[in-house]
Amino acid sequence: MIYYSLRRLFLLVITLWLLTIFIFLLNYLFPGDPLTNMTGIRAGDEFAYNIARQAYAFDQSIFTQYWHFLEHLLSGNWGQSLVTQRPVFDDILPLLGATLELSILAMLISLVFGVSLGLYAALNLHRPADTIIMGISLSAYSVPVFWLAQLLILLFAVKLGWTPISSQINPLFDIDVVTGSILTDIVLSDVPYRAAAFADALNHLWLPVIVLAVMPLTMLIRITRDAMLDVLQKNYIRAARARGLSEARIMLRHGLPNAMQPVVRQLGLQFSILMSNIIIAEMIFNWPGIGSWLVKSIYERDYPVLQGGLLTLAALILLVNVLVELFHAWHYPQVRKELYAER
Amino acid sequence: MRTLAALLATQCLFILGCSPPSEEIAPLEQGLIYCSEGNPESFNPQLGTSGTTIDATSAQIYDRLIDYDSGQQQFVPALATSWEALDKGLRYRFHLRENVAFQSTPWFTPDRQFNAYDVLFSFNRWLQDEHPYHDVNGGQYPFFVSSGLIHLIDRIERVDDHIVDFHLVRPDSSFLANLATDFAVILSAEYGAELMHLAAPQQIDRQPIGTGPFQFVEFRKDFVIRYTRNEDYWREGPYIEQLVYVITPNANKRMLKLITGECDVIPYPLVDELAKLASDTEIEVTSEVNPNIAFWAFNTEHPPFDQPMVRRALAHAINRPAIIQTIYNGNARLASGVLPETSWAFSEQDQTYPYDPERARQLLAEAGYPDGFSMDIWAMPVQRAYNPNAQRMAELIQSDLARIGVNADIVSYEWNAFRRRLARNEHDSVLIGWVADNADPDNFFRPILSCAAARSGSNRANWCDPEFDKLLVDAISETNQAARKAIYQDIENYVLEKVPLVPIANSLRFQAHRSDIKGVELPPYGGLSFRKARKVAPEDMTAGEPKP
């Protein structure tokens, strides 16, 4: 296991390193001055520009330049935005919080409902319940996120008036942005109307969370169902039945834990899909997260921000995938066996 | 299983969250949400000309020396209590108001009240090249350059703490009008000195301090601008505790958010959806006569638009009445010249070219383009009071031009990038417009067509004609209104002859708000003011109505 973990972590570091090279090269590929693209300091501001030139070693070879770029990157100096002149790194953290809040909630919901519905469908194989669940999940899977979001907004916000259309909270609630995750920020703040603000934030939250949860939910339903059907064929289930164990015990003690193995393996991939959907959802719901920030930076040709957003999103996806793989290998010994046998 | 139950419990919380809280909560009752169409460029209107920046800052954070009352059509005191013209109009003396406090915020506590030094600081910042703040945050002051104010004011002198004298180079009848615009705001000299001491002068336009009704709290780009009430405001208002701008560039979303109650007031509602909005009893649509002009400007430096004959041909080629019908739904008047109907120098005479494709083709042939040519039409990406849909307008013009053999491409960029590229004159022609900052007819010509405007990059026709500039100077040096009117008619005819631009429409400015909001001022000249805005409870609304 240690060998495997080290190998995975090493791979992660290598991938991240390649990513920094790619981002470094982007500065030269974007139109304009590479140093301005990198730091957000324009040549017009001579004093600051010369300091940056020194700091990034722009009078030396490209390898030295990359080395200095990497140093700045690692020390959290990601340049400043060309539009707002604010440091990119300081702006990223609250945006990341807002994005993580959405993605974690969406992932949790899809996990809870996906697994339970998949299980239910597997136990009712070829009965109406199974057909209905599978039918709905397939059609929901086919609806693109941007379309689903518009439909649900039209229904729940405009027609029924149950929920607002956009943003994290009614902006009249003055909640200080600390982590970016609105629920956490409300708990941390000391405003007198915390309960009302919390309710309002939940009211803003549920629609984007549902929109985002639909895609992984439908996938997880199908994966769980197939995995469960697979497990139910296995000899140890038959043996358990033969020993006269209760059906509930068979399912919860023997069926489900084993069926979860392919589900866990899929979580990393589902998270990646969720992250690309979250960019769209954040734009539609005007969510102050890293996805909408990235898209706006593209519109405004704000290169330092664009790089920062790209790096953060890519690193996040890589990290989650590696963690899921490590958990998968740690929790399921048979996976490890497979891995070593391959070698 | 326990975790599963906990998750299900979270789920229930979600569902509980769906029902809106029944009792009213204080911040919701005492605040107002305005869904603005874009980000402000900065928090100092001196630095820009964009209407979005003006609406977000000028009347909220700052005050001016004098205000213009459009109802009474005269200048009224603001930070100056009275003023007089001396030395045959070469010197203006302003008596400043006493006991006016600057805003006190977490980052600045004023030690003194408003006085003559603040006036000097605010004006010298853009007047004097050597002023320590002149080059801070770009050092461009487009309004003051294009209106000519930067060359008109010779110097400003402090007589005592509450009297200042403005020395002018020549008498100018538009001087007071320019001082009453949203650009001539008063900043705090003390705050400037403190920031200089802290070596952070650029903060002056990012964390602004003024004397206005609202003080700045925070700005999150693309999301919100938050203001709170200035407790020590020197005149009436404000009545709301909190003013929040939610940045919503999409016009459709703005309208939906008004319907769901997420916005209290929205600018530029979609014209074709207006009827639907107006029938809703919760929403009121107001319109104001707005002194504006939508026009199609040619880059007169780019061939073939350097030939007046080509420009005249294109002016004949487009069907303007059809544009008015399609784009404005009849909510605008066909422009009969550059000046709108509301100006005192306006005349009934039609100073435009009629729709005549035959004549257009003939003129093109005479100019040496019998087979036409290719050109770009730049269309604004945003809605403005004068033009709710520039893209669609460009399409109409494109099809009109195809009829005379001219092949047009439509070009657009993000709004701030669009304006930057326009200032660099990268366009062939552009659909844009102008909203007057004051009631003086001069404001319709000098900021958009003079040589000074061409130099500062706000002359969309990139047109510099010394003869035209001479007429403008003649007009402002004249004090007799009838004589001035005659000169402005000559100017109109000169524009008609040279066609640097084709006037299209004068439109109304629309705004929609929830019916429990009262007192949002939409003055004809310049930006929006929330000073007298308030939220009335439903019971008050019925109580306020006269009983039979």
The helicity of chain A comes to over 70%
Fourth-tier CATH superfamily name of the largest domain in chain B: Dipeptide-binding Protein, Domain 1
Question: Compute the gyration radius of chain B: what is it?
Answer: 25 Å
* Count of distinct structural domains of chain A: 2
Looking at how many chains there are and whether they match, the oligomeric state comes to heterodimer
Structural class of chain A: mainly alpha
Give the low-pLDDT segments of chain A. Answer: none
Count of helical stretches of chain A: 14
Kindly provide the radius of gyration of chain A, computed on alpha-carbon positions and rounded to a whole number of angstroms: 24 Å
Content of β-strand of chain A: under 5%
- Give the rounded overall mean pLDDT of chain A: 89
Largest sheet of chain A: none
Number of helices of chain B: 20
In CATH, the topology of the largest domain in chain A is named MetI-like fold
Low-confidence stretches of chain B: 1-23, 540-548
Name of the CATH superfamily of the largest domain in chain A: MetI-like
The count of β-strands of chain B is: 20
